[in-house]
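Feature request, filed as a ticket because there's no other form

It would be nice if the structure record came with a short human-readable summary line next to the tokens. Right now we just get the raw output. Example of a typical job, pasted below so the devs can see what we mean:
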Amino acid sequence: MFSLTSNSSGNFLELWSSHAVVRIVTQSAAALALLDKPVWFCLRAEPKREHLAAISLRRQFGVECLSPRLRFRKLTQRGPIWFVEAMFPGYLFARFNYATQRRAVESSHGIRGIVRFGDRLATLPDDTITALRSHAGIDEVVTIDASLKIGQPVHIIEGPFRGLEVVITQVLPAKERIRVLLDFLGRSMEIDVSTAKVLPA
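Raw output as currently delivered:
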């Protein structure tokens, strides 16, 4: 989502995700048309196709893109599954020359257009992209660390207590096992469980 704030030298935007905040500067389309160098833009993309849109831009037009994604494990009816989703759903970042490449970029597969506010376009400083790249890594995928902590509720996903929600009472020294408190047949008891057999609730 965007939050728009004002500054004496122009407008600044922030694009928020659950794992990053990107600062965006708006610039007028007229000023960008006079620049003879590539600039980083925030683009709107088809939802759940951000990564494919970035691949298309790279292959078709040689445009440098950044479309960071999040990798996380989630409990489903079939058991725990790894998911990969866009860090900024519906958006990606691309570096191109506005005057010469805008039409090609905006007509590219999966791209809905440059993010704009009236005649002002959303651009990103190079240092913002550098920071985001260092966070996302070379493959542009951030694996969400599901570190387990004392007091955290978790679901048991394997074994005789499968499906129960329990609370962690101790992280055991080997770090691959935890002790949890569960209510079973009207009694509270602690058991040791492998961390591979639980997911955060």
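Something like this underneath would help us a lot:
DSSP finds four helices and 17 strands in the chain.
Residues 135 and 142 are 8 Å apart (CA to CA).
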